[in-house]
Give the backbone structure.
Amino acid sequence: MDIIFIKNYNGIFSSKWAAKPYRSGMDQKVLSENLRRLGHTCQFIDYTDIDFRNLGYLKGKIVFYTSSEDEDLFYKSYVEDMVYGLELSGIQILPGYKYLRAHHNKNFMEILRDLSPNPGIKNIRSSYFGTLEDFNRRKEQNHYPLVLKSAFGATGKTVTLLNSPSDALQKVKKFSRSFNWKFELWDSMRALKHKGYLKESKFRRKFVTQNLIPGMDKDWKVLVFGEKYYVLERKTRKNDFRASGSGLISYTKDLPEGMLDYAKQFTDEQNLPFFAMDIAYNGKEFSLIEFQALYFGTHTLDTSPYFFQKNPEGNWECIERTSIVEVEVAEAIHAYINKTGLE
């Protein structure tokens, strides 16, 4: 199978926690060698190599791409244009555009949750807002405490708890503030000039609110490559409900019964070669906190001394072995091709 990988403007493909130099992405030589070992050819191209009037060379190939988490997401916006264009052209893009839209965008991630037919992920209920004004129109319907998340950001830094209406107003203002003094000055002049003019909001950074599921003192980062599941336990800090970014991490084989099955069911529904999830358990039920299909951190795989995999009898087994992300990506792609019959 011919496989195309699209690099970013720095010539980097995807992310790798253990990359050297720092933030240089996956080792493209190692990834290529492992794909060739499995009988595939691959090529790395740039986004600027894409000619939408002549896409014949991409027909019949699988195209993987890299996203971005650049400041203000200017470059990611460009990537979205290019990837959506390829998808509209019928090119086999993996993962599909909807996952790119959800990357670094909790607002759209929650829309995908609400659209999912899987009831097991819907014990978290989200409301999404584009402005502070949107939130204030709904404030009478809120039941506190609520979790507030900026649409952008990672490691728990843009997640906080809302305990009351006054607390919510203060924190939502902070999270949604979209400061631009030139724009705001010009808008104030409009209001002076035009009677009845309604000024634009100063709070236009989108965000979501969610119900708080109590009784959770930890969660698990789960990375899936093919049929291999890598799990990292993350505990919350004292007097904090957030496990992401706490630094209290460890590997353990003592997982809640049924958690891997819960993760596998949702992963299988996506039909992708690799996937990442944050899963919590309150002693009664599992909750899918967040998920990603691309450009997720690989620390859990890079540092794990083992992974979990179902044996031929259908039981979960712990395999004591370290992993190399480029090898696992190649093997996950190979397994995906065989499973979907794309050869």
